[in-house]
Amino acid sequence: MTRYKAIIAYDGTAFSGFQRQPHKRTVQEEIETTLLRLNSGQPVLIQGAGRTDAGVHAYGQVIHFDLPQLRDTEKLRFGLDTQTPEDIAVVSVEHVSDDFHARYQKHRKTYEFLVDVGRPKNPLMRHYATSFPYLLDIEAMQQAIAYLVGTHDFTGFTAAGSSVDNKVRTITRATLEWSSYPNTLLFTFSGNGFLYKQVRNMVGTLLKIGNGRMPVAQIPLILTSKDRQLAGPTAAPNGLYLKEIIYED
Amino acid sequence: MTRYKAIIAYDGTAFSGFQRQPHKRTVQEEIETTLLRLNSGQPVLIQGAGRTDAGVHAYGQVIHFDLPQLRDTEKLRFGLDTQTPEDIAVVSVEHVSDDFHARYQKHRKTYEFLVDVGRPKNPLMRHYATSFPYLLDIEAMQQAIAYLVGTHDFTGFTAAGSSVDNKVRTITRATLEWSSYPNTLLFTFSGNGFLYKQVRNMVGTLLKIGNGRMPVAQIPLILTSKDRQLAGPTAAPNGLYLKEIIYED
């Protein structure tokens, strides 16, 4: 058996998320179907670093899988890339040691979130940015986002009923700037792990602060109180991108 | 009667082009259907500045139409924008004089064309840039594109059988640079008018030159010979954008 690590990009619009679910179109299912064909009809299971939700995009999702043979990585990348549907691209494939695990090996993830503040919204970006055509105090949002950097218990920013016990995570970067797209804001978050819906809840809260319906100090209040009711709504998935994953060692 | 000028943006992916055709989904039909609703069920015909083909996008298409009443332009814009499908946006509406004509009033058009040179191609841009994952000599293309600026007979760059008699047009800008998207080239062409498929034929020829399969001097040869057979293939429509139209006066 040889273990392979691959970087995958996808347009999340037409997927019910990354993870396989019965009777739904998922990224995992499409890649496993292609790997089965490339593996003489023998099933191959893939493990993804993160489970992106329906509508969420990826430029840097990482997966690993095992194949019986040692293959040329560029040929394998090309075969996977061309045989998966056109809303999935296989950016790179490399050999890794047998103990590499896309999900459990320590890593730092970066998510980006695009918000189209134009009025009207850009019809060409309707699946690739969340529209927010209302007044925004960018400076207040930049003050607020800075409170998210550091090691905190992010219970207040995760979905109620999350099954993870330890909700302490470290965010090493949380920034807001204008993107290279017209009238579009770019949020960037890097950290050692993110809870379910954490990024979308942070963005939804920051937009509410920017719109003047919550004070900047709401962020530290949500962190210390761990009260999801104090946070803003969950931002729509179409603005969210899993941008990059960097593994330790 | 009051005449209105509107600027329209659309994602061309799901349209059979701008111009109305039987049994096809077109931009013109969608806007006219919405205007009929906003005009008490009375049909309203629109006139577009340019007829974009299937798959071609627009940020700055201009239309004009007449309504019996003098309406508030922002209310009309908002009504049109929200009632047209989400792949059309109405950017602005203004009152214009009765002799304004979106197509026949003198104007300068700007087209942009995006080429994704990444390997693999970006799955999120598959409808918004033409993929060309082959070697390109950018400098050769920049030398070649400069030959297009000026007043020329562009017969060699239009579709065979075009019905327009006078094929002399003036191009005031023709540039090639890296766009703000990763691994994506941006062609920009401005001029007083473009022939049918002219921009896509110019881009197809420039890509062939960049790929080393035609010399830089092929451009002046096509212009002077007026021979379509000497030009490259027509580039795919998904990279083309009608960016802006500026009227004289």
Automatic annotation (TrEMBL), chains A, B:
The record's annotation in Gene3D superfamilies points to: Pseudouridine synthase I, catalytic domain, C-terminal subdomain, Pseudouridine synthase I, catalytic domain, N-terminal subdomain
Biological process, per Gene Ontology: tRNA pseudouridine synthesis
Q: For the Pseudouridine synthase I TruA alpha/beta domain, which residue ranges apply?
A: 6-105, 144-248
**How does this polypeptide assemble, per the annotation?**
Homodimer.
EC number(s) for this protein? Answer: 5.4.99.12
NCBIfam families, A to Z? hisT_truA
Identify its protein family: Belongs to the tRNA pseudouridine synthase TruA family.
TM ranges are: none
PANTHER family attached to this UniProt entry? PSEUDOURIDYLATE SYNTHASE, TRNA PSEUDOURIDINE SYNTHASE-LIKE 1
Full protein name: tRNA pseudouridine synthase A
Q: Which of this chain's residues are annotated to bind substrate?
A: 111
Active-site residues annotated for this sequence: 53 (nucleophile)
- Gene Ontology terms for molecular function: RNA binding; tRNA pseudouridine(38-40) synthase activity
Biological role stated in the UniProt entry: Formation of pseudouridine at positions 38, 39 and 40 in the anticodon stem and loop of transfer RNAs.
Q: Which UniProt keywords apply?
A: Isomerase, tRNA processing
Regions annotated as coiled coil: none
Reactions catalysed, semicolon-separated, are: uridine(38/39/40) in tRNA = pseudouridine(38/39/40) in tRNA
